[in-house]
Design goal:
The complex is a heterodimer of chains A (about 110) and B (about 110).
Chain A lengths: L3 E3 L4 E4 L4 E7 L7 E6 L5 E7 L4 E3 L2 E6 L4 E6 L8 E8 L5 E3 L3 E6 L1
Parallel strand pairs in A: 2-11
Antiparallel strand pairs in A: 1-3, 3-8, 4-5, 4-9, 6-7, 7-8, 9-10, 9-11
Chain B lengths: L3 E3 L3 E4 L5 E3 L1 E3 L5 E8 L3 E8 L6 E2 L6 E7 L2 E6 L8 E8 L7 E2 L3 E5 L1
Parallel strand pairs in B: 2-12
Antiparallel strand pairs in B: 1-4, 3-9, 5-6, 5-10, 6-7, 8-9, 10-11, 10-12
């Protein structure tokens, strides 16, 4: 089993839709969690950290479920510019960050 | 705006050449990392450094070495490039534990 798993997609959604991605992790001792966004042929960019209590940044909401060992990202009112690959990242040790292989989102006009 | 700068966006090298990839950050971060990214495999950690002159192997260090003589600069060296090292190489830095990475724009290396 991979340490961090994501559905590769693509998730094709119309503009204005709400879409959610999950990411499961295998190490129950994992500590920090992040969502990154990566556009085609560009570097990943930090979208948001994921806190135990959940957090929200505009149209984006991230949640952590430690009991079931997954994190989620919810995007409301999708925009064309949200089309990208979303990577989840889990810290499993002092320096070790594990990246998922990403979920591809396409927002359609 | 904070920055991580990688010296080349695109590089083509011949098999057997020694290749240097340079990364410089201007954020006074202590931790720096080199990853490679391949389709279907995601980002894989090659080496990291948590302080000047310190280095640690990541998950796939074979065929690579690194150098960190100054805090702001972390170099990745391919001792003898091979075609299976054709990849996108990403440098990242991080302020400390629990912080996210800032990535450079990547170097797309092709070994022929």
């Amino acid at each position: 089993r991979k340490e961090v798993e994501q559905d590769p997609g693509p998730f094709n959604v119309p503009e204005g839709a709400t879409v959610a991605f999950n990411c499961t992790y295998s190490n129950s001792a994992s500590q920090s969690f992040f969502w990154y966004r990566q556009d085609c042929r560009k570097e990943p960019k930090l979208l948001m950290s994921v806190y135990s209590s959940g957090n929200e940044d505009g149209r984006f909401t991230a949640q952590l479920n430690r009991a079931s060992q997954y994190i989620s990202l919810l995007i409301r009112d999708s925009k064309l510019s949200d089309s990208a690959t979303y990577l989840c990242v889990v810290r499993s040790g002092t320096y070790k960050y594990i990246f998922g292989t990403g979920t591809r989102l396409k927002v359609l006009a | 705006d904070v920055k991580v700068t990688q010296s080349s966006r695109y590089l083509v090298k011949r098999t057997g050449e020694k290749v240097f990839l340079e990364c410089v950050q201007d954020m006074d971060h202590e931790n720096m990392f080199w990853y490679r990214q391949d389709p279907g495999l995601g980002l894989r950690l090659i080496y990291f450094s948590y302080d000047v002159k310190m280095k640690e192997k990541g998950d796939i260090p074979e065929g690579y070495s690194v150098s960190r003589e100054k805090k702001e600069r972390f170099s990745l060296i391919l001792e003898s490039a091979s075609t299976n090292q054709t990849s996108m190489y990403l440098c990242a830095s991080r302020r400390a534990q629990n912080y996210g990475y800032t990535f450079g724009s990547g170097t797309r290396l092709t070994v022929v």
